[in-house]
Design brief:
It contains nine helices and twelve strands. With 309 residues, it is of the alpha/beta class. It has two domains: 130 residues, 3-Layer(aba) Sandwich (Rossmann fold), CATH 3.40.50; 175 residues, 3-Layer(aba) Sandwich (Rossmann fold). It has a ten-stranded mixed β-sheet, with helices on both faces.
Length: 309
């Protein structure tokens, strides 16, 4: 695996460098430390490039996770995230790793990181947590779309599942549930109604995993009621998940990816690290995608006893 990690020599980029070193060590991959000097064409920029080159070499020499990893440095003048995106594309990078800029703007996700995620040619790992070792618990939220299938395939192809326990979670919301108590429906009947929905979505999730070739994986399946972003954060907290893996969708008519409200909310919240998997770039081979569907759309669901349609 070829990993490109952005560094500005700050504590957050130090976390990213350490995580990149761990991942490269696990997969037999290599790491490229990249620093972008703002601007171009002046003597000051040229001096800054030389100084940054010295600092990247020193950084590689003092990070323990890089000691047994093939590590190189790349320092270029330019603008972020464009310079990083160009390097990722031209050097056929498998993963870009960046430190979280949580708290730098009102939405909790820095413009540079957001722009990188939207246009990246490969998965982007946003490192939020301090680095204590390899990932042990990984959570993959799925909405049964092609974006979710790509997230699952990346977990397998990048070797993440070789060293960690993987939980696949599907969140569902029950249509009409808030109104049921007002109709005089008993609590036991409402609970039974919710469980019938859970059973239906469990069958769909199992069928989805089988269709994508993951039925034989020793991965935990979870189907939980609630808003997706709330289910994801709650499950990550309960299981101690260190990494969330989420896919983005293609923006119709544009080459950039559409993050989606759930992915955006998870990224902005911080907490666990987040690996964002973009759609294939134009011109690359790939299977036809399935668009995401609204929860419960197109599927006949059971009605609670005592309520008629």
């Amino acid at each position: 695996m070829r990993i490109l990690v952005a560094t500005d020599f700050s504590p957050r980029s130090q976390r990213a460098v350490r995580r990149a070193g761990i991942l490269a060590g696990q997969t037999g991959g290599d790491v490229m430390l990249m620093h972008v000097v703002d601007g171009a064409g002046t003597r000051q920029v040229a001096r800054d490039v030389r100084e940054a080159q010295r600092m990247t070499v020193e950084q590689a020499a003092v990070v323990p996770e890089l000691f047994r990893v093939d590590c190189r440095s790349l320092v270029v003048p330019g603008r972020m995230p464009d310079a990083l995106l160009d390097a990722a594309a031209t050097r056929r990078i498998d993963m870009v790793v960046v430190g979280s800029s949580h708290g730098q703007d009102v939405q909790g996700l820095g413009r540079t990181v957001r722009g990188l995620i939207r246009a990246a040619p490969c998965p982007v790992l946003v490192v939020n947590r301090s680095v204590g070792g390899p990932y042990v618990e990984i959570t993959v939220p799925v909405d049964l779309s092609d974006a979710s299938a790509r997230a699952l395939r990346s977990v397998a192809s990048l070797g993440l599942a070789d060293h960690a326990h993987v939980s696949v979670v599907h969140a569902f919301e029950v249509l009409g549930k808030p109104k049921l108590s007002g109709f005089g429906i008993q609590r036991e009947q409402i609970d039974s109604y919710v469980e019938s929905w859970r059973s239906s979505f469990t069958e769909e999730t199992d069928a989805f995993l089988e269709a994508e070739g993951f039925a034989g994986r020793d991965w935990t399946r979870r189907v939980e009621e609630g808003r997706p972003e709330e289910v994801i954060s709650s499950l990550a907290a309960r299981t101690g998940s260190e990494l969330l893996v989420m896919g983005t969708r293609a923006r119709t008519g544009f080459r950039r990816a559409l993050l989606g409200s759930v992915t955006e909310a998870v990224l902005a919240a911080g907490g666990a690290d987040v690996l964002v998997v973009p759609p294939p770039r134009p011109g690359l081979s790939g299977r036809p995608g399935r668009p995401g569907r609204p929860l419960s759309a197109g599927v006949e669901r059971p009605a609670p006893q005592g309520v008629t349609a």
